[in-house]
Amino acid sequence: MSATLSTPVPPPDVAGEPLELRRDKGTPRFGVGRTLRYAALIFGIVIVLIPVYVLLVTSFKGPGDASPVRAWNLPQIWTLENWKEAWTALSPSLWRTFQMVIPASIIAAFLGSMNGFVLSRWSFRGANTVFALILFGMFIPYQAVMIPLLQIFLDAGIPSGVPSLILLHVIYGIPITTLIFRNYYQTIPHELVEAGRVDGAGMLRTYWSIILPISIPSFVVVLIWQFTNAWNDFLFAVFFSNNQNGPVTLALNNLANGALLQDYGVSMAGALLASLPTLIVYIILGKYFVGGLMSGSVKG
Amino acid sequence: MNHRFRRYGPPILLLAPSLILMAVFVYGLIGANFSTSITDNHSAATATGVEPTSTVWFENYTRLLGSEDFQHSLINLFLYTVVFLLGTLAIGFVWAWLLDKPIKGEGFFRSIYLFPMAVSFIASGVVWRWLLNSNQGENASGLNRLFQMIGLDFLQNNWWNNVTFGILAITIPAIWQLSGYVMALFLAGFRGIPDELREAGRMDGASEWQVYRHVLFPQLTPIMLSALIIIGHMSLKSFDLIMSISKPANYQTKVPAVDMYLAKASFDYADAAAIGTILLVLVAIVVVPYLIKTNRQEK
User: Fold this and answer.
1) Which residue windows are coiled coil (chain B) (predicted)?
2) Residue B36 domain-assigned (yes or no)
3) Domain residue spans of chain A
4) Cβ–Cβ of A203/B247 closer than 8 Å?
5) Which residues of chain A lie closer than 8 angstroms to B223, CB-CB?
6) How many domains does chain B fold into?
7) A-chain residues within 8 Å CB-CB of B290?
């Protein structure tokens, strides 16, 4: 899941706001049209949830239930064996993923906030070009830098696994975090910053004492975005870590693809386990998650 | 001097770390990658520096682009991108349109449609590999079994095991995962259109359809463009989902990103780098005009 940009959406001073705006002026419609709409929407829900049903059901099935004939049925006997096995296989990598994702998100968020502040407040010749050049970094296929990147990390002696991945997610997270913060800071009234300047606060002071405290909503958006992206990353994981020191996506892929005999039950319990942290974030902070999706407007 | 520093010092200080990182790790490495791609660094010996490499200029590119194997990857990527784009845009638009007018439970529908975005391609690949299982008849599981159960046997097929169109099976999970995102974009677009515009249309006696056709759709063009760029560039970089659903060496579902992985795994750094550059060019063709356009609009 990668970068976002754009949309002429009002910037997210309250994240997710655009979607919350209700328009209740039109007379509510009843009858056939409404029923059809509901039918279509519910059909959509069913399609979207089919994989979830399969994941859940299969993860509680014992080995006996695995026969293709019973593929879509509920488990005959509900068992937690798959979950236990998946936990044993994945828990070390889950822990490593947390160790990687948390610092990677926080550092990238701070860098993005600094850049966003400067680029939104300080106009110099070529400021827009600098911004576009930073932004291009979020679109590049990382395959186009991977070979020299591997070489540099090897030469610099950066250990593979968590340290490498933190560094990578910070570096390549800069464009998106800069974008989100810049768009946010552009919505802050000039007077606020000017007031600080009159009081004799320099740019650094202004940033530290005026801008940072009001940036919390954006920080939440950016942290969630970075957290989800880094958590779900597989490309860097596959090139910069291995099964012993890598994140959970790598471990899950090995669990699901490695075994000679496919054990779908364990794989699916593992897939759920590996998705739980991001799903919990989505459920609790869904509004901000959507805010992250929306706010990446290239347009200010 | 002191004045100058006071003016330019702090902003440069704040920007410097990121600018240096971007200069080195984006632009510097793109250059370094290109210079590897024009060498004959094709083996473990040359990759580790035991044997020297020499410059062969565009030989790797012409060989790759001329090989049937790599052409197959490019065709796959093209098919995949077209269907992925059409699928997400169509479904995302319809969902947004259905949710545009006030409806009970809107938040619920939105949340469900969007949730697959929070899940990794690797995790969703686990279940989709099972759903897209190619067994049919007696041994059918996954979607083929479901088709049997609901009397749609004729829909059974071997999914991604088809040589020509197998790649399209992979678009199903991709569309599943990102339609909600496109929906969110379109929905924000719908909501961003001032009510007055619609009202004005209705006042002029336009039918509901005409209001959509002449008032709303034109307003949604920028959103459509954004969605195209976002999904398009994601599609060109597709890797995770294919790795997780089919085996990497699987000919049917090969795309350039997978070729790059395989080349690197066999220490063919020159080819890996060349494929990386080819992907970069493809993405740049899509993204650069867009960045230039938005950059201009801002001025």
Assistant:
1) none
2) no
3) 17-29+81-295, 31-79
4) no
5) 7-8
6) 1
7) 298
What CATH number did the domain enclosing B117 receive?
Answer: 1.10.3720.10
The pLDDT, as a whole number, for residue A10 is 37
pLDDT digits (tens, 9 = 90+) for B17-40: 999 999 999 999 999 999 999 999
Check if the beta carbon of residue B20 is closer than 8 Å to that of residue A134.
no
Measured between beta carbons, which residues in chain A are less than 8 angstroms from residue B288?
A: 136
**B262 within domain boundaries:** yes
Radius of gyration, alpha carbons of chain B: 24
Q: Which of B7, B8, B19, B22 to mutate to test the interface with A (most CBs of A within 10 A)?
A: B22
> Per residue in B155-179, pLDDT tens?
888 888 888 888 999 999 999 999 9
- Homologous superfamily (CATH) of A17-29+81-295 is MetI-like (1.10.3720.10)
- Dihedral of CA A216/A218/A219/A225: which sign? positive
Q: Measured between alpha carbons, how far is B276 from A149 in angstroms, rounded to an integer?
A: 12
Alpha carbon separation from B273 to B77, B220, B279 (Å, rounded):
18, 39, 10
Q: Look at A234 and B120 and tell me if their CB atoms are within 8 Å.
A: yes
Q: Do B260 and A143 touch (CB under 8 A)?
A: yes
* Predicted confidence band of residue B54 (pLDDT cuts 50, 70, 90): confident
Interface pTM, i.e. ipTM: 0.91
Phi, psi (deg, nearest 5) at residue B55? -80, 130
Task: Tell me the chain A residues in contact with residue B113 when contact means C-beta distances shorter than 8 Å.
Answer: 44-45, 48
d(CA A212, CA A209): 6
Q: Flag whether B15 is in a domain.
A: no
* Interface list for A 107-126 with B (CB within 8 A): 111, 114-115, 117-119, 122, 124
B14/A114 Cβ within 8 A: yes
Name the token pair of A42.
């519910």
Range of the domain at B277: 68-298
Nearest CA of chain B to the CA of A245: how many Å?
Answer: 18
Say whether residue A264 is in contact with chain B using an 8 A CB cutoff.
yes
* Closest chain B residue to the Cα of A12, Cα to Cα: B188
Is A87 a residue whose pLDDT tops 80?
Answer: yes
- Higher-pLDDT residue of B251 and A99 is A99
Strand partners, B39: B55
**Concatenated DSSP letters for A206-261?**
IIIIIIGGGGHHHHHHHHHHHHHHHHH--HHHHHH--TTT--HHHHHHHHHHH-SS
**Burial letters B87-112, b for 16+ CB under 10 A, else e:** bbbebbbbbbbbbbbeeeebeebbbb
B295 — pLDDT class (breaks 50, 70, 90): confident
